[in-house]
Amino acid sequence: MNRREFLRRMTLASAAALLPSGIVRAAETILRASPGLRVSLAGVGRTPSEADVLTAVREAAEGATDFSWLSRGDTVLIKPVVNSGNPYPATSHPLGVQAVISLLKEKGAKRVIVSDMSGVEHVKLSPGKMRGSTRKLMESCGVARAAEQAGAELYLPEEEGWEAFFEEGPLSGSHWKSGLMMPKIIKSVDHIVLLPRCSRHVLAGSTLGMKAAVGYWRTDTRLEYHHDAATLQEKTAEANTLASLREKQRFTLTVADKVQATFGPDKGAVVSPSTGLVMASESLLAHDMVSLAWLLECRRGLPQEEKKGRRDPYTSDFIVNVGNRWVVRLLGGTARAFGAERLARNDLDTIWDDRVLKRAFQIAGGIPTLNLIAANPLLPDDLKGRLAAMTTRSIADAGSQVRGASIASPRP
User: Fold this and answer.
1) Mean per-residue pLDDT of the chain
2) Counting Cβ atoms within 10 Å, is residue 326 exposed (0-12), middle (13-18) or buried (19+)?
3) 75-80 and 191-195: which strand pairing?
């Protein structure tokens, strides 16, 4: 054991002595290739009732974590995805938000805050100026009502203006040139729970848990993300190495009885499989491996014409690049759009093709083995088996996925 490794282990030991075991465990697993990372899967029918969804969310969450990290009186921030005002699955499921709030309060949370900032097509924050409203979009898609009925409060950082953010850097070795501007509310909460959706994305290929980090960022951080587009996928993974997320994010849960399987992020062909899923894990990496596998599984049932051209324009290099420059223009003006790097599309035939996951594997130090848990009897064994096969890599192949530039381990 060299000096650096000795000091790292001593730091971990000190943290373990000062913090509840659940907090240390959650911080260790958010982007960590530990063996047997647990992913809890609850099944629901094709057209589940509200009660079915609420029950499945509870089952998946309790299968993913024992909530030992949550103490009575704590404050929890829930981060949904409200990129637009369109209904689920273009945005997070309101019933998922409602169920998790109720569960957190039952487990002892005193205060639950629901927070996000929508996409620049709908909301743009500038110094001294704001266009659009995430609050109105949350009301439109049903998330606001679900949150308030369950006893949570809404916090929309753009309503406090440009200074409602603080700068935080990712771990060394990332592709980010500047620190990321994150909402200050994160500093005052004890825990974070991430509630993304499972969707295709016209520029990035997919939008799952790691991509949901964009909803935290101020406009200037989003501008760097899209302007320096050659490494957009890598920066997506690296953005989840911020200390505030590593130390406070406890689990990720996605309701996916419906999947937006083309276009995205705001619209696309919706697939309603015979058995829907609610997925939850303390590991963001493990969650996204299964979520992407589920997206690809649902896309397979679409007619081929649905996955080409205007119906799923991600298949066009030209549209991907022009679309990203359009976003850069919205964020930073025409001159910045002309100078933006080219965004190359990243075909996703298997989860191993995804550059976001590849970068996350590098950060984690390897491809984790997953432990898929059936959280209720509605999950068919054959579906669980297919997802397990889609998220398992041989030892020989796994080595090829983690070659490349290194980044510091996300451990404290």
Assistant:
1) 90
2) middle
3) parallel
Q: Cβ atoms within 10 A of the Cβ of 155, count?
A: 18
3-state secondary structure of 26: helix
Helix axes 21-29, 3-18, angle to 10 degrees: 140
CA distance 95 to 385: 27
31 pLDDT band (50/70/90 cuts)? low
pLDDT digit string, tens, across residues 42-64: 999 999 999 999 999 999 999 99
The per-residue pLDDT for range 91-125, each reduced to its tens digit, is 999 999 999 999 999 999 999 999 999 999 999 99
CA distance linking residue 69 with residue 63, whole number of Å: 15
Task: For residue 265, give the nearest of 211, 213, 224, 304 by alpha carbon.
Answer: 211
pLDDT in tens, 233-270: 999 999 999 999 999 999 999 999 999 999 999 999 99
The CA dihedral of 122, 285, 341, 164, to the nearest 10 degrees, is: 40
Q: Phi and psi (nearest 5°) for 108?
A: 125, -5
Q: Going from the N-terminus, what domains does the chain have, and what CATH number goes with each?
A: 32-401 (3.40.50.11440)
| Sequence-ordered list of residues with C-beta below 8 angstroms from that of 309, at least 6 positions apart, any chain | 315, 316
